[in-house]
Amino acid sequence: MVALALKDVGASYGRVTVLSKVGVDTLKSGSLTAVVGPNAAGKSTLFKRIAGLIAGPGLVELSDAANGDRAICYMPQDTGANAVLTVYESVLLSAKQGGGWRVRDDELFEIDAILKALRIEDLAFRGLGELSGGQRQLVSLAQALVRKPEVLLMDEPTSALDLHRQVEVLSFVRDLAGRAGMIVLVALHDLNHALHYCEHTIVISSGEMAVSGSTQEVINCGMLRDIYKVDARIETCSHGKKFVIVDGIAA
């Protein structure tokens, strides 16, 4: 089973330090972790650092990974997809990255299954340039999943989706993480999604880790006031789920 740990991880752009001293104890296979914090806090930078796209101090320790350089997959918020390709071609191209170009029947079957699971099979032969922002996010998720990563980093994957699709995608990813034994980290702005779907939460603020731990413990009134500068309450639904109600801007 794959495991991921972060030890004093940081990152810089030139001489400017944008992330420092992020430390997280071992995240294990099948886990879904929320990464939350204000805009420009350093969430995307953290994902790029974990994925090895930028350098920096500290250690990203991935143990027992079987897929080598394909073990970690970063799904950015802005996909920058080639508008000339069709959806199917883009997912197939992602599947063949780092491998030979001979296409096997089982690979085509797997692509079909992923598009169907995400309910975008009807988009298969449409050009990427024809899609809405939400549709492109779903295609980006298909491109990530077809690579069979052991660690999946999702940067605000539901920002362009309507509420129904947000719930659908997060439920699908949570269930898939459990079935496939993936470690999934997802950057979210909606803290209620974090409370509902993620057992672990990392809070990033001003380029540093503010707190990390159980989602139910981390998302509390004090954190919301200190990090987000809002007065808020944590309520409990009739079925036992907690949710955030914001009353206003903190004085």
Q: Which CATH architecture of the largest domain is right?
A: 3-Layer(aba) Sandwich
C-alpha Rg (nearest Å): 18 Å
| CATH topology (fold) name of the largest domain | Rossmann fold
**Sheet of most strands:** 6 strands, mixed
What sequence of helices (H) and strands (E) makes up the elements? EEEHEEHHHEHEHEEHHEE
Unreliable stretches (pLDDT < 50, length at least 5) are none
Corresponding CATH superfamily of the largest domain: P-loop containing nucleotide triphosphate hydrolases
- The end-to-end distance, rounded to whole angstroms, is 47 Å
* E-strand count: 11
Provide the residue-averaged pLDDT: 92
C-alpha geometry? globular
Number of domains: 2
CATH class of the largest domain: Alpha Beta
Helix content: 25-40%
Strand order of the largest sheet: 5-6-7-3-8-9
Structural class: alpha/beta
Number of helices, where a helix is a run of at least 4 consecutive DSSP H or I residues: 8
Proportion of strand residues: 25-35%
Keywords:
alpha/beta; six-stranded mixed sheet; 8 helices; 2 domains; 251 residues; 30% strand
Please characterize this protein's 3D structure:
The model has no long low-confidence stretch (mean pLDDT 92). The protein folds into two domains: 1-71 and 149-218, Rossmann fold (3-Layer(aba) Sandwich), CATH 3.40.50; 82-144, no CATH class. A six-stranded mixed β-sheet has the order 5-6-7-3-8-9, with helices on both faces. Strands 2-1-4 form a three-stranded antiparallel β-sheet, with helices on one face. Strands 10-11 form a two-stranded antiparallel ribbon. It has helices at 43-50, 87-95, 105-117, 133-145, 163-180, 191-197, 215-218, 221-228, and strands at 3-13, 16-28, 32-36, 59-63, 72-75, 151-155, 183-187, 200-205, 208-214, 230-236, 242-249. A hairpin with a 2-residue loop joins β8 (200-205) and β9 (208-214). It contains eight helices and eleven strands. α2 packs parallel to α4. The protein is globular and about 60 Å long. It has 251 residues and is an alpha/beta fold.
